[in-house]
Amino acid sequence: MSTPKRPAMGRGLSALLQTNTATTGQDAGAKEVVSGIFEVAIGDIEANPKQPRVHFEPELLQELAASISALGIVQPITVRRLRPCKYQIISGELRFRAAQLAGLDVVPVYVRLANDQEMLEMALVENIQRRDLDAIEVAISYSRLMDECSMTQQQVSERVGKERSTVANYVGLLKLSPLIQAGLRDREISMGHARALVGLSDDVTRDALYTQCVKGAWSVRQLEAAVRGLSSPKTAPATTAPHPAAAMLAQKTGLAAKVVQKANGSGTITLTFKSDAELQAALKKLS
Question: Which domain holds residue 67?
């Protein structure tokens, strides 16, 4: 199931930013900037002074920094180009701060230009139609159409010619931890494996199951079975104390009666007779 890791996103394209000076959607070369993923030096990126989030949990930053050190940045940061070699964060400041903490010199970014909304939409739609994208790249593109182009899932599905459920399934992958997203990106697991893991709500459990899946080279069905085993509610034990209804049934029928009722309300009634005569007598009492 394991495959060689691919090069980091944006590597090899960043030289384009050195020669392309477009800062608005109308400038020459704007499409090449908007449609690409680039690596930009951390020192060339500044925080957004209008960022509504002003507090970042130190523990969360440390965890993300450790993840970035091991896996890299799975989802690029979105920045606005202010001028050549100067960018401002639009979204992804938590990832940016964690990258600084991890000691990265460069980070992968999406570049936005002024007045580029229509161009961005076209670029994202074109990108989704490509055959060589992995599931996370598709998921991120769908998410960007919704977040940056103010589209609903239904509008995205109509724009790209896919079922709304397909869009929802891909976007749901972004709820997975960076470990699993990286595994999907690097084709350690398939889309089917990832969708099975989305069914679990706890990241620790999902990551542990993902690790077992990769080590054991599980099929999708094997992983689905493991998820069902963790998700299925445990059967409530039957009560052992005599049920009040047993005495009533014994009085009515003249037979030994046993009532077993589970916590969910279901159960069984057992009437015991020692001879046909006892059975006929009980039936006569009930008639």
Answer: 1-115
